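Changelog note: in this version the structure field was regenerated for every chain. One regenerated record is shown below for reference.
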Amino acid sequence: MRLWSEAFEDGQEIPVEFTRDGHNVSPPLRWSDLPDGTRELAILFEGVTPATREPWLHWLAYKIPAELDGLPAGFKHQHEPEEPLHLFHGRNSLDGDGYQGPQGTLGRTFRYRFRLLALDRPVEAPPGLDRKRFEKAIAGHVLDEAELHATYTRQA
C-alpha cells in the first residue's frame, strides 16, 4: 500500500496552509495498491513528537469508500457525513471533530504522520468516535497500513 500527497514529499515540511497558522484544512492525499478484500479506508493524522504517551490525534476520518484513490484538500470540521464522500470524522485530541492541523511551539520542529488503514469490513459506528472507540471498532479488521511523514516548524 502506498500513501502520498501532492502538497509535500514524505518526511518534508507540511505547507503552512494545512496548519493552524494557515487555513487549517487537510492536505490532498492519494493512495494506491490497496490489498485485496479492502472494503473501507480510514485516515489518522498524528503528532508523533514524544510529548505524550500516545500520539496526539489531529484528525480521524473513517468510512472512506475503498473505491476512492484519494481525498482532495480542504477538510476541517464536520458533524455530518461529508458529501459526496460520506466519510465520518472522529474526535481529535483537541476535543473537537474533524481536522486540526499542526501548530506547535515557536521555532521547534515537530514530527507528524498520516496513517491510511485498509479495512476488511465497513466501520459499524456513528460519526464522532474517539480514538479508543475507533480502535475497538476496527480491531482485527486492518488488512494493511501505509504512512506519510511530515514535519512542521512554527515560525514567528
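Spot check on this record: The two ends are 37 Å apart (CA to CA). Helices lie at 131-138.
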